[in-house]
Design brief:
Function: MFS-type transporter; part of the gene cluster that mediates the biosynthesis of echinulin family alkaloid.
Order of helices and strands: HHHHHHHHHHHHHHHHHHHHHHHH
GO molecular function: carbohydrate:proton symporter activity
Strand content: under 5%
CATH architecture of the largest domain: Up-down Bundle
CATH superfamily of the largest domain: MFS general substrate transporter like domains
Distance between the termini: 117 Å
Number of strands: 0
Organism: Aspergillus cristatus
InterPro entries: MFS_dom, MFS_sugar_transport-like, MFS_Sugar_Transporters, MFS_trans_sf, Sugar/inositol_transpt, Sugar_transporter_CS
Number of helices: 24
GO cellular component, one term: membrane
Largest sheet: none
CATH class of the largest domain: Mainly Alpha
Length: about 475
């Protein structure tokens, strides 16, 4: 009981992070497998679609899970996401044409997105304050382990000369989904969700189980009372907890923007671009085929080891300072990486330097942004809107941003056209000048009046 139970719950629920890492990582190696390329013969644009469509499903999974998590509870919402992961993995492994593969990726993405929203909220709500950073950070550790295993699985299967080369790795996506589904039966429900639904006795029992030893029972009861009073106060302040209400209340709106901002800044570090197209990066540096897949495996292993070590310190660190220092360090790393990639004449030393910069970038990320982003985004929302708020914030962590980047630019372009660009259709070139307040321009009506006046004067002179 106590800390061992909290850690067990964090690790079991963290299998969702393993799913996220494995599902993302396995496609990195799959799109480089010879048998996969022979089966689907994808063009470069289709490769991008195969990679990104999972995150499109994840976007909708995040938004759906917020409501379901409030209605059903955190445990049932986790099980809900697992069903989609298992079905999606089966569809991908059995795919014989691109459409079936895309549907499988979309379904899997929906499940992973649902879990990405639900699990960090659950982990934050069951964790004593002192250990919250470590427990929620388990999500990133499991993600790193999943990514590493995906890379090594892809490397091992690359030696097989049949469709097993890519079907087996894709089929394995379903295994952690099944484990998490049945493991969820043994997880205690979130005490904050229980209090929210007036199950006070059950909530107190869970809180007492989650505290380290009997000497802390008084502290457990004190925290229980704090949870009850906080939720009671939140209910009194606002009975409505819709998504729209989050935007209406200033304090909630600020939390949402901060939570979404964390994920947006994480993605703008460039980590997902590097992870998804890792083998292509290595190929551009001269490490092709199986060598690129092997380096991907080493890359994933380094990330898992770094994250594991970081969890021993994350609960002792502040949140902001490590993130800011990481951004500065990653900026320098990316500049060097870009220079080495561009300077192809540097030869083998330049190639090795480029690989080293990729690894250094990943080490910095895994020790800072990796675990701390999950922690910060999950702990800033009040219980009353934690699921809905985090679901909207975590949706930013899905790769729909690659599309919504263009959604944003198109929408902004529409506004610019509406308010700044004058309409020119049906106007003469001279009349168009008037639209820009050109005082040197003579309006057509003025020209016509002058012409009429000159004609009239000419006629009168003749008479």
């Amino acid at each position: 009981m106590g800390l061992s139970l909290v850690l067990s719950c964090g690790v079991i629920a963290g299998i969702s992070g393993f799913l996220f890492g494995y599902d993302s990582g396995i496609m990195t190696t799959t799109i480089a497998q010879e048998q996969f390329l022979q089966q689907f013969k994808p063009k470069e644009s289709m490769v991008g679609t195969i990679v990104a469509i999972m995150q499109a499903g994840g976007f909708f999974g995040c938004l759906t899970a917020g409501k379901l998590s409030d209605l059903w509870g955190r445990r049932k919402a986790i099980m809900f996401g697992c069903v989609f992961v298992v079905v999606g993995g089966a569809l991908q492994a059995a795919a014989y044409h691109t459409a079936m593969l895309l549907i499988g990726r979309l379904v899997t993405g929906f499940g992973v997105g649902s879990l990405t929203m639900t699990v960090p909220v659950y982990q934050a709500e069951i964790s004593p304050p002192r250990w919250r950073g470590t427990i929620v950070g388990c999500q990133q550790l499991m993600l790193a382990i999943g990514s590493a295993i995906a890379n090594w699985t892809g490397y091992g299967c690359s030696f097989v000369n049949s469709s097993f080369q890519w079907r087996m790795p894709l089929a394995l996506q379903a295994v952690p989904g099944i484990v998490l589904f049945f493991g969820s039966y043994f997880l205690p429900e979130s005490p904050r969700w229980l209090v929210e639904h007036d199950a006070l006795d059950a909530a107190l029992h869970v809180v007492q189980r989650l505290y380290p030893d009997k000497q802390n029972l008084d502290s457990a009861y004190a925290e229980f009372q704090e949870i009850v009073e906080q939720i009671k106060q939140e209910k009194a302040q606002a009975s409505e907890r819709s998504y729209l209400q989050i935007f209406r209340r200033k304090a909630w709106r600020k939390r949402l923007f901060l939570g979404a901002g964390i994920w947006l800044m994480l993605n703008l570090t460039g980590i997902n671009v590097i992870n998804y197209y890792l083998t292509q990066f290595f190929t551009s540096l001269g490490y092709k085929g199986r060598r690129a897949i092997f380096l991907s495996g080493v890359y994933g292993s380094v990330g898992a080891a770094t994250t594991f070590l970081a969890l021993f310190f994350v609960h002792r660190l502040s949140r902001k300072t490590p993130l800011m220092m990481a951004n500065i360090s990653q900026t320098a790393t990316l500049i060097v990486m870009a220079g080495l990639t561009a300077a192809s004449e540097l030869g083998k030393s330049g190639q090795m330097g480029g690989v080293a910069m990729i690894f250094l970038f990943f080490v910095i990320y895994c020790s800072t942004w990796g675990p701390l982003s999950w922690v910060y985004a999950s702990e800033i929302f009040p219980t009353q809107i934690r699921s809905k708020g985090y679901s909207m914030a975590s949706a930013v962590n899905c790769e729909w941003r690659f599309y919504f980047l263009f959604v944003a630019t198109n929408f902004i372009s529409a506004l610019v056209l509406l308010f700044l660009y004058p309409e020119t259709s049906g106007k003469s070139l001279e009349a168009i000048d008037l639209l820009f307040d050109d005082h040197q321009t003579i309006h057509r009506s003025t020209l016509e009046e002058n012409e009429v006046r000159r004609t009239s004067e000419s006629v009168n002179a003749k008479h």
